[in-house]
Amino acid sequence: TLLIPFDQQIRLLQMAARRCHCEEFALELVKRQDMAVFGALSILVAQASTVRQGLQMFGRYLHYSVQAVQLDLREEGALVYFVVDSPFDVATGSDQFWDHAVALMFTVSRMVCGRQWSPRSVFLRRPQPRDTQSYSRYFRSPVAFGAEFSGLVFTRDVLARPVSSSISNVPRQLQHYLRTSFQHDFLEQVRRVIDSLLPTRNCTSVTVAQCMGFSQRSFQRRLHGEHTSFQAQLDRVRSELAISYLQEPQFSLTDIGELLGFAESAVFTRSFKRWFGVTPSRWRTRRFA
């Protein structure tokens, strides 16, 4: 599914902070979220064997579902810089955006490293707020404001640690979310997971079943009971998303192919023509003619 446009997201966060008279609004928001907010991506991170692998996987795939954010895990000497940036021009007055992004990074890092973990220091681009102590308490670390980058800094030895056992709860959190939100619609649950997994190129029947808490045999039996197949649901999600993405000029055909999990643009083109009878470039030309 397409998300809230980037500029609207920034305005919404800033407006909420003003209305609530709460400078640390974004931090309070993230307190009410967990890894399940990242959908099926959280399952992939939970399968990592080391902290390095988990954070690299999260950074590699996050931008497919949150295009306004890019993560970079840089190792410099004995330190690691886990930095968040944006490919878009982030205007001044975007304090809540940076707070929210770094707070989510902190949540993910704690799930991977363990709940007792805390970074060596935190850097935020935002100006210094009136209450700096609330930030230090939240991150459990010194916080530098007005920095040149936003992110977390910690020692390099952390990367070699095994992933924390606490992240094993993530699959259950996601399964609970799917089943409570779409308890009467099994196929909608399937399509939600497919949507989340597509950009990772790991969207297989086995992976989707695992995300939903089914054995492969039970998953196939449920699909058969709905008179459908995994491939049919995969094609449905891809075709619907393809039309949505083609109406967004900023996405090239190569971008769209990657977002839909195709290994090559040519495969995307052939699939689109099978669905709609025309190539994606031809469809886009007609749409904007």
Structure characterization notes:
The protein is α+β, with helices and mostly antiparallel strands. The protein folds into two domains: 141 residues, no CATH class; 121 residues, Homeodomain-like (Arc Repressor Mutant, subunit A). Strands 1-2-5-3-4 form a five-stranded mixed beta sheet. Helix 8 packs across helix 11. The protein is globular and about 60 Å long.
List keywords for this structure.
alpha+beta, five-stranded mixed sheet, single chain, Arc Repressor Mutant, subunit A, 289 residues
In short:
This protein is of the alpha+beta class and 289 residues long. The chain is built from 14 helices and five strands. It has two domains: 6-32 and 49-162, no CATH class; 167-287, Arc Repressor Mutant, subunit A.
**Helix percent band:** 40-55%
Instruction: Tell the overall outline.
Output: globular
| Overall average residue pLDDT | 85
The biggest sheet amounts to: 5 strands, mixed
Beta-strand share of residues = 5-15%
Strand order of the largest sheet: 1-2-5-3-4
- Tally of helical runs: 14
Radius of gyration: 20 Å
Low-confidence spans: none
Quaternary state of this entry equals: single chain
Structure classification = alpha+beta
**Total E-strand runs:** 5
The helix-strand sequence is HHHHEEHEHEEHHHHHHHH
Calculate the terminal CA-CA distance, rounded to whole Å.
25 Å
Domain count: 2
Reconstruct the topology from this structure.
Blueprint: H1 6-19, H2 25-31, H3 41-46, H4 51-65, E1 70-76, E2 79-85, H5 95-113, E3 121-123, H6 133-139, E4 143-144, E5 150-155, H7 170-181, H8 186-197, H9 205-212, H10 216-225, H11 230-246, H12 253-259, H13 265-276, H14 280-287
Parallel strand pairs: 3-4
Antiparallel strand pairs: 1-2, 2-5, 3-5
Helix pairs in contact: 2-5, 8-9, 8-11, 12-13
